[in-house]
Amino acid sequence: MLKLILLSALTILVLTEDLVLQPRYLEDVPQTRVVGGEVAKPHSWPWQVSIQVLSDTRWTHDCGGTLIRAGWVMTAAHCVDSSQTRRVVLGAHNLLTENGTEQFMRIKDVSKHPQWRNDVYKGYDIALIELSTEAKLNSAVKLASLPPPNMVLPNKHPCYITGWGRTSFGGSPSSYLKEALLPIVDYNTCSEKWGAKVNPTMVCAGRGRNSGCHGDSGGPLNCQVGGRYYIHGVTSFGSKCSTVAQPSVFTRVSAYIGWINQIINRKGAWS
């Protein structure tokens, strides 16, 4: 599940019809099959958030994000460029139906990376949202784990993109949280596909039809290391909701651990 910046600034998932490897901690239960993809088990990605904008009197999903502290959400800088009124929804699965697990949070402040220049191809597409109140952590709302500084995953390492974005280029957004398996694509290979539009502070993933799409921007790239999921990427941009020609591109979180800690520590770290 924005603004388009030339080749589609990425923001939920175009998933293939093929079966994908499920995260180990998901129960082996039948998954609802939707057009072009697969719905995640409710609250299996409990750090995923929906960033919504107010249009007249209605809130609509705009971008994804990741809960990294009880009072902090990580997202893409291009998701918070405009002066629209926004809120953050935690613990959601179906955006059209409330089931009592949702937490609706007002935004206190937004910190975009100081080197962000309103161009995803120049990098620094990362921002932190400070919530007005702390999230209540439970089975539907949990904190994500961030990787060690400068950690780079090897080629073909399995990761999952998650979000409520469009299910095809020009198609409709998904009301249910979706997931897709996107293996890591090493920097040299990604550079061959994207040229100077990518740099080492980005991470690429996806080969085939699985991809992020409009509405997924800002959401997490979830990668399992040592039996635990870490957020290695923030969804940034791609090519027409497909990775057949070019991989999806993410802000590499491990390149910004120092900046993330600096912002949170300066404003007061919430657990």
From TrEMBL:
Subcellular location: Secreted
Broad class of where this protein is predominantly found: secreted
Cofactor entry: Ca(2+)
Leader sequence segment: 1-16
GO terms for MF: metal ion binding; serine-type endopeptidase activity
Keywords, ordered alphabetically: Calcium, Disulfide bond, Hydrolase, Metal-binding, Protease, Secreted, Serine protease, Signal
Database matches in InterPro entries: Peptidase_S1_Elastase_sf, Peptidase_S1_PA, Peptidase_S1_PA_chymotrypsin, Peptidase_S1A, Trypsin_dom, TRYPSIN_HIS, TRYPSIN_SER
Residues in coiled coil: none
Domain Peptidase S1: 34-265
Gene3D superfamilies: Trypsin-like serine proteases
GO biological process, one term: proteolysis
Pfam families hit by this protein: Trypsin
EC number(s) stated in the UniProt entry for this protein: 3.4.21.36
Reaction(s) this enzyme catalyzes, per UniProt: Hydrolysis of proteins, including elastin. Preferential cleavage: Ala-|-Xaa
Any one GO CC term of the record: extracellular space
Superkingdom assignment: Eukaryota
Protein name, entry field: pancreatic elastase
